Amino acid sequence: MSPSSSSSAFGEALRRLYFVRFAFAIVWAALLVPNSDTDGPLLTTLLVVYPLFDAAAVLWQLHARPEARRPEVTEWINVAVSALVAVALGVASTMSIAAALGVWGAWAIGSGIPQLVTAVRNRRSGGQVPQMLSGGISVLAGSAFLAQGLDGADDIAGVAGYAVLGGVFFLVSAIHLSIVRPRKR
């Protein structure tokens, strides 16, 4: 496979992944909002599933990349952090909503930075500007969530909005790839 066709295949794989990530974010947020102020097994499950899905999506992206021999440090950091956060959210959500919100905030900061770096590096695949913005916004939103958690917040509904906004960025990227990729063939 030529470099241009492997780049095109990777762009198509990203497009599909971004549509899936958008749909997941919308469904997850719709399930979270009515349960955002009640701790219990459903909230814990929702909070754990989100970072696990994120880790799985990044792993899938790693395996879809045509230059698999190139080190993908930022993606592996994202996978490891997301897996650890799933465990931390599981524990924190049994303690308090504020603790879970603080963990979520720290995760948003920690995953936003590698997302930004990865999007900058993948810019040649197209559709990465929304991902760059999403990474930057993750750092800012994460700081706000962390502060709210430290302040003792008793509702975690704000993370649903954060997930939806992230999903919209994935949708914009997918649409961009749908428009740009056919022209490049």
Automatic annotation (TrEMBL):
This is DUF308 domain-containing protein. It comes from Streptomyces mimosae. It comes from the Bacteria. The chain crosses the membrane at residues 18-36, 42-64, 76-95, 156-180. Keywords: Membrane, Transmembrane, Transmembrane helix.
